[in-house]
Design brief:
mainly alpha; 5-stranded mixed β-sheet; two-stranded antiparallel ribbon; 26 helices; about 5% strand
Length: about 700
């Protein structure tokens, strides 16, 4: 764990960087959205702060300087430079978006939903702080990418993870933010907390979507039906990036909606389009499945402007959008000749890219099984119930109705949202990874439902926006529908524990009692607290809470029984005692091998190609040659845990330089003895003196004989 000076230094670097960028982002927002107030303005500040942090880290990483001192210096220079160079706008230049009241009880019901949702997500977050991030994707590529950024200081190099799905080409805005946290604190303590932070961002953005119509609590409840469902149960405390991508997408839609409401017939003003384009680009730079909704927004958003302003509107939206995601796709283009290496051809046109397949399970699409009743009853229906709740037919029907009705009869801004929701659905249904697995056994369908998140979220947001135009009886029916969907989705999520149920009940009682307090009493209470005192208390609470969190997390990181298959716990427990070692592995789950201080260099053993491909090494002699060339000290293998593993342990068992130091079930950790010149004494730090002396005597006896 970090000692007090190291902890305070890391927290100071973190707070200084974020505060400086926040000041710069607030000044940029004041220039672009001068009249905006309240939560939409704070949402824009958050998005612009993250955009500045991402761009700064990308650029200094492009020259190999992603380290603490250069990063903090760059953040201070960018943030304070923007703050002092840009002048504040003149008062009253821009019209703020409307904010009609949403009802006395609506705000408190929304607060209740948010508190219960945060309490539900905290179950997974607390579990992570008790044992480490154990999600498959977190340990496979999310956190290895983040660690690679922090260890190499570069954002241009590709990390060596298992060669499946061409994962090293994925856009990596999310992993870069995790890497920034590692660089500033020298540990991954922030990573389990980030998705909880992005959850709050999703709720704030959903609120802002309905705010100009007086329907903010409704749109928040609509998005909460997905965030509280089993679909997102593996996000809390993990490094999965769906929550961050959804936050940026919802924020982009919120800026367009509020901009359109403020602009009237002229449509969103250019500042709103610029901030919306920034958020959309950041979403496309997080996850591939958000590319199509973002592309639909990029094409359709300029048509919200009046006819004479559409070309300028396209530029104001498109340029920031490219800035938010272009770094990763440009990196792919330079390395592989193709910004999207998964795309091998467009019609008759053949595209460059690695000559290798995805390497996962057999590929089948949902449409392939659309008429197969057995697959529906055995696989699709149970997965939909577990991920979306028992009322999933009602949820999907509501989402489909929202898209169709908006395309037929809604205002232009709602049609833009509907097009963005629709854009990804046919691609998902045709995609070979949507129901992957052996023929007739789509084991990957349940996991792939996460890829529908952008379409479902945007479609469900449309339902309360449409209901606002209906009669009182129709709005009541929609409210009852959302309440039923919320209960069903909550039951499909992470199982509640007694202590969390107690917290939720107390929060519910507080939220329902707060409206009974007189406003004068509340204003008097809040008025007694000065902003300086509130800020100092918040920083103090953050420092004290962070100190105990990092002590708990780093003391128990990967020392439990979370990986029960094939003896993985033994290998990861062994790695907790290693420092600054070069470790090769053939395991797809590699992040726990990096050690608690993140100093071990862990690499998946594979063969790199000139076309930026990365493939498995087959055969004992090539494997040994690769290990010798990489100067690895240890190799972690797992006999038959994965198909490509078979034979690796056998190859190393025959190598005289390889000596097993851990062997449990299918897991074997080998130590590779370095080759030495004749006459050089053995001074290996891993060997005790008696063991070294015994080996020297054995070598002398063998030479005499």
């Amino acid at each position: 764990m970090l000692d007090a000076p190291a902890y305070l230094l890391g927290m100071t670097a973190l707070l200084a960087s974020i505060c400086a960028l926040g000041l710069g982002a607030a000044r940029v927002r004041s220039r672009l959205l001068g009249g905006w107030l309240g939560l939409p303005a704070r949402l824009a500040d958050a998005v612009l702060t993250l955009a500045l942090l991402t761009l700064t880290a990308e650029l200094i990483g492009a020259v190999g300087m992603l380290e603490r001192a250069p990063l903090v210096a760059a953040c201070l220079a960018v943030g304070l430079g923007l703050r002092f160079v840009l002048r504040p706008p003149a008062a009253g230049v821009d019209q703020p978006p409307p904010a009609p009241p949403s009802g006395r009880w609506g705000n408190w019901v929304a607060a209740l939903i948010a508190v219960v949702l945060v309490a539900h997500w905290s179950i997974g977050t607390v579990a992570t702080f008790g044992g480490g991030m154990t999600g498959y994707d977190s340990a496979w590529y999310h956190m290895p990418f983040a660690a690679h950024f922090a260890q190499t200081g570069s954002t241009l190099d590709f990390a060596s993870v298992s060669p499946r799905y061409l994962s090293w080409f994925y856009p990596q805005n999310s992993e870069l933010l995790h890497g920034v946290g590692i660089v500033l604190l020298q540990r991954d303590v922030l990573s389990p907390l980030l998705n909880l932070l992005w959850l709050g961002g999703c709720l704030a953005a959903a609120w802002c979507v309905g705010r100009p119509y007086g329907l903010a609590p409704w749109t928040l409840a609509a998005v909460a039906t997905l965030l509280d469902a089993g679909l997102m149960a593996d996000q809390a405390g993990e490094a999965r990036n769906d929550t961050l991508a959804l936050f940026f997408l919802l924020a982009a839609v919120a800026f367009l909606v509020n901009g359109a409401a403020a602009g009237g017939r002229r449509g969103p003003h250019f500042g709103a389009l610029a901030v919306a384009g920034t958020a959309a680009g950041l979403a496309a730079g997080v996850k591939l499945s958000f590319l199509f909704p973002v592309a639909a927004l990029t094409i359709s958003a300029p048509f919200l402007a009046s006819s004479g302003r559409r070309r300028a509107a396209a530029l104001w939206f498109g340029a920031p959008m490219l800035a938010g995601c272009g770094f990763w796709y440009l990196r792919n283009l330079l390395a592989a000749g193709n910004p999207l290496p998964w795309l091998k051809a467009v019609g008759p046109l053949q595209l460059d890219g690695p000559e290798q397949g995805l390497g996962g399970r057999p590929q089948f699409s949902v449409l392939h099984y659309l008429g197969d009743g057995r697959v529906w009853s055995d696989w699709f229906e149970p997965a939909l119930s577990n991920r979306l709740g028992e009322l999933w037919p009602l949820l999907l029907a509501a989402a489909a109705a929202g898209i169709i009705l908006c395309l037929l009869r809604a205002s232009p801004i709602l049609k833009v949202i509907a097009l963005a929701a629709l854009a990804w659905i046919p691609v998902y249904l045709l995609d070979g990874t949507s129901a992957e697995g052996p023929a007739g056994t789509p084991v990957g369908f349940a996991s792939s439902l996460r890829h529908l998140l952008p379409s479902l979220a945007l479609a469900l947001v449309l339902v309360p926006l449409l209901a606002g135009q209906w009669s009182r009886r129709g709005r009541t029916a929609i409210a009852l529908l959302l309440a039923a969907l919320l209960v069903a989705s909550d039951l499909s999520g992470e199982p509640w524990r007694p202590v969390y149920v107690l917290v939720a009940v107390v929060a519910a009682a507080a939220a329902l009692c707060m409206p009974l307090m007189r406003r004068t009493d509340m204003r008097r209470l809040v008025g007694r607290i000065s902003p300086a005192a509130a800020g100092a208390a918040a920083v103090g609470l953050l420092l004290v809470g962070g100190w105990f969190l990092q002590r708990s997390y780093l003391s128990h990181r990967y020392d439990g029984e979370d990986f029960r298959s094939a003896g993985l716990n033994a290998a990861f427990g062994w790695a907790n005692d290693q420092r600054e070692q070069r470790i090769a592995t053939t395991l797809p789950i590699q992040y726990p091998l990096i050690g608690p201080d993140l100093s071990n260099r862990v690499t998946f053993v594979g063969r790199r190609h000139d076309d930026a491909g990365f493939t498995l090494i087959r055969g004992c002699r090539p494997l040994r040659a690769a290990l010798a060339a990489g100067d690895y000290r240890f190799v972690v293998t797992a006999g038959g845990l994965e198909p490509w593993e078979r034979g690796k342990s056998h190859c190393l068992a025959k190598d005289p330089r390889a000596r097993p130091v851990v062997r449990e079930d299918q897991i074997v950790v080998f130590r590779l003895e370095r080759r030495r010149a004749a006459g050089v004494r053995d001074r290996s730090p891993e060997l005790g003196r008696s063991e070294a002396r015994r080996r020297r005597v054995e070598r002398q006896r063998s030479s005499r004989s």
